[in-house]
Amino acid sequence: FSERNEWLGLAFDDKRLLAEYVEVTTQDEMLEYYQQAINDGFEGVIVKSLDSHYDFGARSYSWSKFKPPTG
Fold it and tell me: Is 50 buried (19+), middle (13-18) or exposed (0-12) by CB count in 10 A?
């Protein structure tokens, strides 16, 4: 994963095109980052395993949206 992001960083001059990512190891770390994202006005965060891969056009349990409930 880190190697992929290094290559992407080299490919794009405008770093705003790349999503921010944070590696966490505990649920508390994830919830802290999530709360900061909500406070910054974001809808939520994407949570994924570092060893997962992206399947274009397909949903997967490897990637999950984590956002406040609506209703």
Answer: exposed
- How many whole angstroms separate alpha carbon 44 and alpha carbon 59? 18
- Structure token digits, residue 34: 């999530």
CA dist., res. 16 & res. 26, Å (int): 27
Cα separation of 14 and 55, whole Å?
25
10-36 pLDDT, tens digit per residue, is 677 766 666 777 889 999 999 999 999
Q: Give the three-class secondary structure for 11.
A: helix
Q: Are 29 and 6 in contact (CB under 8 A)?
A: no
In the numeric block, which tokens belong to residue 15?
A: 């770093």
